[in-house]
Every structure is written in C-alpha cells, then in structure tokens.
Sequence to fold (640 residues):
Amino acid sequence: MPLLSLSNACLAFGHVALLDHADLQIDDGEKIALIGRNGSGKSSLLRSLLGESALDDGQVWRANSLGVAYVPQEPLFEPEAKLFDVVASGMGEAARLLVDYHAATHRVAHDDSMEAIEHMMELQSQLEAVDGWNMNTKVEQMLGLLELDGDVAVGTLSGGGIKRVALARALVGDPDLLLLDEPTNHLDLAGILWLEELIKNFSGAVMVITHDRSFLDSVATRIVELDRGKLASFPGSFAEYLVRKEQMLADESVANAKFDKMLAAEEVWIRQGVKARRTRNEGRVLRLEQLRRERSERRERQGKVNLELARGDQSGKLVAELENVNKSYGDRFIVRNFSTRIQRGDKIGLIGHNGAGKTTLLKLVLGQLDADSGRVQMGTKVEVAYFDQFRDQLDPEAAIVDVISPGSDYVEINGKKKHVISYLEDFLFAPQRARSPVRTLSGGERNRLLLARLFAKPANVLVLDEPTNDLDIETLELLEELLQEYTGTLFLVSHDRRFLDNVVTQTIVAEGNGRWAEYVGGYEDWLRQRPEGGLNANVEIEKPLAAEQSVKAVSDAAAKPAAKQGKSKLSFKEQKELSELPEKIAGLETSIAGYQTKLADPAIYQSGGEATKIQGLLEGAEAELLEALERWEVLEARNV
Fold:
C-alpha cells in the first residue's frame, strides 16, 4: 500500500536542478536506501517529503493520518534540555503536558508546598484525559531501550549520544514512515549493529540516506539513486544495484555518442550554404533545432574526485614504540599496561565504542600526551596531518578558497605548484563556488573540503578520525584506493566496517577496562581472531544499546571465534623473528610477482624446461609465503 508519492517534482538551488521532474513512491514496509553524489540534493528531498521545505513545482501526496518521523544529519537540541523532554517531544502536541508533569514531579520532590502538589495533581488529571500515562510509559521504555538517562542534559552527550536521542524522539511516536539522514554518523560499531536490527524489525517503512556499504547490504530492500535531478529505482540489494548501474551508464554513453554523431552530421548539413539551401526542407531544420535544445539540456555525469596526497619527507623506520603504558583520568583507566611498536608504512585501524579512549591512545602514540607510567619512544622525522570528524577546523563564514590556501593563489603538491581553483576542481568544487562560504556546503562537501586541505599538507603520518562520514560511495572507493597505495603511516578511526577491511593491515581494539589488544587485518579479521571469551571480554565493543541479544546474534553469524590461544611473552629470538618477517614477506611477494610475469611471457615455453623450473620456484615461494604469514599471525597474537 502506498504511503507517500512524489510526482513531477522540481527543486533548484541556484542554477542547479536538484530535482528535475522526479517521481517516487514509498510503500508500506519498504526499507529504501537513498544514495547519490554529495550535494546532489538527498537531504533536500527528505525535507520535501517531510513537508519542511516546499517544492518549486510538482506534488507530494501523503496517505491520510500518515505519521512521519525524521532524524536529520546533524540533530540540533538545546544543550540544557533534559533528555526526557527531548524524547517526549516526539509524541506531538500532547508531549507538552507530559514534559510539564515530569517537571512538576521533580519540583514536588524538593518542594512539598500545597501549590506545587496541586499543580502536579492538575497536570495528572489532564494527562489521564489524553491517555498520558501510556505516553509516559513509552518515553520511559524508549529511554531504557537506548540506555539514556532522562534527567541528563543534552549538552553532556557525545555525538553518538545525541544521535541516539534523535532516534529515540523519532521512534517514540510509532511513525508509519521513518526518514533517516546519515544515521550511522557518530554511532559506534555496537550502535550501528543495533540500528541495523532496529530497521530490519521496524514494521513501518524506512528511507535512509547512507553511504555505509555494509549497512546498505544489511538493511536495504530497494536502492533509490538521485543522479542529475532524476530518481532511479533499483529493487534488490546494493550488489545488484552496482551491476545494473554499470550497465545503465554504459548504455547511456553509447546513446549519447550516437546522438552527438547525428547532431554533428546535421550541423555540417545546415552550414553547406547555397547548395544546401536548394535541398533544405523545413522539417529537417526544425529537427536540428530540437536536437540542439536536447543537447543543451543534457546534464553530463559529474567527474570523479582526483585525490593526491602531498607526501612529506620519509620518517624513520620506527614511528613510535610504547612499553607498558598506562593512562587514567581519576579512577578510570583509559589505557592499561599497553605495549606496541608502530613502524613506517603500518596502516592501523582503531576500534572501540564511543568514549573508549581512541583519541587518548592516539595522542599517547603520537607524543601529544604524557603517559602516567611506562615508556613512549617517538621515531624521527614524524610529520602528522590530522582529520577531525567534527569539522572544528572549518570556519563556517570563511570562503572555500581561503580554507585551502589562505593568502595565496597556489598550493604545492609533491613539489608541483597548482592554482587553488584548479585544485578545488579536483575535489569537484566548481570555480563559481570557490568564493562561497563554508556554511553553504553539505556535510559530504565539507568532508571533501577537509580532505582537500589535509592532502595539501606534507605529512608522513596520517590520522583520519571518521573520514567516511557523509562521503558518497564513489569518493569513498577512491579514498580507499589512495590509502591502500599510501607509503606513509596511517591511523584510521572508523566505524565503517568495509572501509576498515579494505584499508588497514592491523587493528587495535578496546577490550574494556582500559585494555587494548592488537590483531592482524581489518574488522572481519578481528571477529575471526578474538578469543573465545571475546563477547564478555569485549563487552564495551559488543554490548549493544540495550539490544544485546540481537547484536550478539549478528556478531556470532558474522564469524566463528578463533580457538583461545595461550599468550606468553615472546623470547628475544622470537621478537627478532617477528621484526624481520614483514621484510621477508615483502621479498617473497616481489619474487612471486616476478615468477608470474615470466610465466605470462609466451616465449618462455619455447625454451625446453625453463617454464617448468619457474613454475616450481613459484609454487615454492607461494608455500613459503603462506608459512611466513601464518608464523607472523601466531607471533603477532602473542606479542602483547
């Protein structure tokens, strides 16, 4: 049954058409993922569906008594507002009574005057008349479900906490349609897994803007793409969408090429002068005019971001070494007896719940914070570039061009000067927008701007704190490729599971009570390697927001925990072996690549037994590589 439909919708921002005669229908129970390039108008579309902003043309139809709830990309609440009041506001008009009664009960607890008691009794009567107790129970249950204290002020919460409050306010009114704009931003892994379960089990319809590919694969029953003002629907999974989209773009390219060829032929004909005028017919002239109009109205697909890092001088082989490091605030341990050795070229992912201390650990590793005890040794020639997930480095009133290169028209990337306007075009900022203030940018565009500024700074150590927030999928994949090829050292804080899997070579995971452990590989590798007792030991990672069983089921299905290994301190000989293994593995990989290149040359099969000899060497090197990788994994797991 249709809940909402969009017909012939038009919406423009300046000279850009965000919606160009677009159509959409949302049916009951659907789980729709809305995707598209940054700045394409996805958030504007949600606000139009909600009725918060008007279309320039077209119509939005909503079913009678349709309940719609909306969670914006960056929820804004009064910092001093109590969580109970904020969540209760999702109940509509009757929420005011509930909020007043909640305040009156707190007043009576400290003021037992007759006036205070009578006021509370009056509100109680009014609540009974509108079934207010049921509403109160709903609010209390929702606060309990998300582990929120109703008497706490919003201003005391982290970004993830504020997102949970916004979700609670949206859900408490039992909406028929839930509109979510980047709901995974600022949520930790447990929160994301919990949200996946919530959306899958939600009885109403959901439309969610997200670029988290693992999240998309888990929840979406239909993909809707906003591309150059048009909405295209792709039933099925995200993987199925990718196949169909590639074919659509190929077909579009062929059709455009044929059109352009026909237009060029007609243009030649119209310019043939006197000879053409003798045979010219009015119908052909009119068709040419129509072709010209169609070509002028065609919107070309936006190009890809051109990412390039300004690399600093190479750091020393050792970037940082920590031995038995401890750090606490008051009675709370953030880092307890942690040791690690970070070498040049390591790509490290940090996994932990919000507030686990990932930022504190990074500052200890980079020498920006003193440890309470233990030894921290920094390497030489370490140049750090830092990406901040909260975008605090951006002045909303500053011009985009001044963010990149204040006081200069050029930036220098790897020894080459480039005009700042041209550099911004690499990050898909049109020249006419270069002087626009930062506040006019969407969330994804602000992230692209931060990346542009970060990559213009020479560095050999990158610290990226949630760089994937709001980035579109194409830019995400390009960023992945860039980081995979990056020869410096990378620290990545992210809750995007697929991004971690595709980029990092090892993870450092918060296991509770200030304890951190290292694992080889990315997120999925960590799930496989964690000890058998990991669900208890890693309670701070695995515990969901009051939905423990559902998240536990997701985690158990994702991986079978590895057998528990006894951990013992490495001997000097084993430490030396572990330090030499990366170089050995790299050498074997180079040898294997060389053998494969030789075997790909047809000429080798003309020289007797040369091919057989090379094949034998290849098989031997591959077996040795497998053995070295397994040995590295065993030693790395014990190196705590």
Q: What stands out?
A: The domain at 308-383+459-531 is CATH 3.40.50.300 (Rossmann fold).
